[in-house]
Amino acid sequence: MSFGVGWPQGGAGVKGSHRRADAGRLESRLVRVMRGRGRSSRFHLRAADRLHGDVRGARRSAWEEVYALVRRIPPGRVMTYGQVARLLHDRLSPRAVGWALHGCPHDVPWQRVVNRRGGISTDRLPDIPPGLQRALLEGEGVAFRADGTLDLSRHQWVPPSARGGRRPPRRQPLRLTSSRSSQKER
Known about the structure:
single chain; mainly alpha; disordered N terminus
């Protein structure tokens, strides 16, 4: 295992060589901790929490937050992996959101999350039949273009909490009045 791959080579006089030395110490410490010989298991726990999105305390795991958000998407609407990640304050990357949905509970409508272009990303996965996500979305009324993408401006859902918590103002209905009655009111 090498975390320094791709770093420029150089001696003590090269600018940034102290970073390579720090990375070397970090690498050896990680290897010791992973082999169970590290001085501090606290470092190991912090790294595991960050990698898997878990945060100590009252907050739910990041994956549980993904599931809760995706359960709120109404039928016929979609969100993108990046949109879900941003709404979770970037606790997970868009790719990690995809991994969370890959192993989600049965009551989570995973098919309502698509890639940033409005395309289907699950057709490449070996354990999901090709076309399943598209068929499920079409069953909910989502229309696809000839290139296999959907129109995000039409089908993308933005939760009310992401809109500032306020609903847009209601439009007042137009009142049709005759020209004579409008002249009398003036």
